[in-house]
Specification:
Layout lengths: L2 H12 L3 H9 L3 H5 L8 H13 L3 E6 L7 H20 L8 E5 L12 H18 L4 E3 L7 H14 L5 E4 L5 H8 L5 E5 L14 H17 L3 E5 L3 H13 L8 E5 L4 H9 L4 E7 L4 H10 L1 H14 L1
Parallel strand pairs: 1-2, 1-8, 2-3, 4-5, 5-6, 6-7, 7-8
The chain binds flavin-adenine dinucleotide.
Keywords: FAD, Flavoprotein, Nucleotide-binding, Oxidoreductase, Proline metabolism
GO molecular function: nucleotide binding; proline dehydrogenase activity
Protein name: proline dehydrogenase
Length: about 325
């Protein structure tokens, strides 16, 4: 394990500490600093961020933060928030041709509930898909830790019977993902490929960053050669170049795949990619539950952590 792996795993552990969490959440300047990665807590903040990104030719996918719901009421609240969000996006004419869509974590809509969790999550996700369909746009199911992969893919398959446009996410750090790419590289199938953000054991996931990248390229080759619609979710310049080369090798038109990046990360590169005629979609997270999301971003990149700590120190 090298120094950055050690830092990453320490940060992921630290993010579980309730003391660290409450200290950061209560720090008076945290909100200000967090805004670089999470534009706000309400639907209005998310819609405003979407409108600003659209003005620079970027598309968006919006995630209401709230993982690991262990209460059916909370899951219902999450669904209501997505419904309100989709209607607000449509009212601002942001959903046209899927320019603004939503990303949903099944754990936030009940997947982890002890009784009938999978069924509740399916029903809730279906409701969000219905409203998205009415608003002329789509839903992508985020992928969470490996214990949920089978359940998430089976809910995806159910949803696609009525809403074939529903997007999937696959994570290149998992050993199984090449096989999943082969299964999902079918006509019309929207598949977001990312490296993966959770701490996973060696029994299921590559531990070495180089191996994760090599797996990413193998998966990308499958998706680009297939009939689906690949969504390349990465800030990694090497992988973005490889994706571009593969798209051109397979004669793909610019509207047959897209690049995706996270809100606040490499914004200049986002506009550069969009300005070069590629589709560029930005993932916007919003909501009160920003802590876990932020910690995963800090774990990925020590420079982000340094920025965060420096901002806390200088403004606190
Ligand atoms: C749109 C989107 C959706 C996602 N959805 C999911 C999901 O559903 N499930 C999941 O597990 N994960 C998801 N992720 C997170 C993903 O798995 C990775 O954890 C995250 O994207 C970091 O991986 P990376 O490919 O950017 O590469 P990294 O290895 O983190 O970074 C590679 C390189 O990118 C550049 N870079 C990265 N960050 C910066 C920065 N701040 N400034 C400048 N350069 C930078 C650097 O050159 C760096 O070396 C998603 C990511 C994106 C972009």
């Amino acid at each position: 394990m090298d120094a950055s792996d050690l830092l990453r795993s320490s940060l992921l552990h630290l993010s579980d500490s309730s003391l660290v969490r409450s200290t950061i959440e209560k720090a008076p300047v945290s909100r200000h600093v967090v805004q670089r990665y999470v534009p706000g807590t309400d639907v209005a903040h998310a819609v405003q961020a979407a409108a600003e990104l659209r003005a620079t030719n970027r598309q968006v996918t919006i995630d209401y933060l709230g993982e690991d719901t262990l209460d059916a009421g909370q899951a219902a609240h999450t669904v209501d928030t997505y419904v309100g969000l989709l209607r607000a996006l449509k009212a601002r004419d942001l959903t046209r041709f899927g320019a603004a869509e939503v990303s949903v974590k099944l754990s936030a809509v009940g997947q982890a509930l002890p009784k009938d969790g999978e069924k509740i999550a399916l029903d809730n996700a279906r409701r969000i898909c219905e409203i998205a369909h009415e608003a002329d746009t789509t839903v992508t199911l985020d992928m969470e830790d490996h214990t949920t992969t089978d359940s998430t893919l089976s809910i995806l398959a159910e949803l696609r019977k009525d809403f074939p446009e529903t997007g999937a996410v696959l994570q290149s750090y998992l050993h199984r993902t090449e096989a999943d790419c082969k299964d999902l590289a079918t006509a019309g199938s929207r598949v977001r490929l990312c490296k993966g953000a959770y701490k996973e054991p060696a029994s299921v996931a590559y531990q070495d960053a180089e191996d994760v990248d090599l797996s990413y390229v193998r998966c990308l080759k499958i998706l680009m050669a297939g009939e689906g619609y690949p969504m390349i979710a990465s800030h990694d310049p090497r992988l973005i170049d490889i994706a571009r080369a593969l798209a051109s090798r397979h004669g793909r038109e610019p509207d047959s795949y897209e690049f995706q990046m996270l809100y606040g990360i490499r914004p200049e590169e986002q506009t550069r990619i969009a300005d070069r005629g590629h589709q560029m979609r930005v993932y916007i997270p919003f909501g009160e539950e920003w802590y876990g999301y932020l910690m995963r971003r800090m774990a990925e990149r020590p420079a982000n952590l340094a920025f965060f700590l420096r901002s806390l120190a200088s403004k606190g």
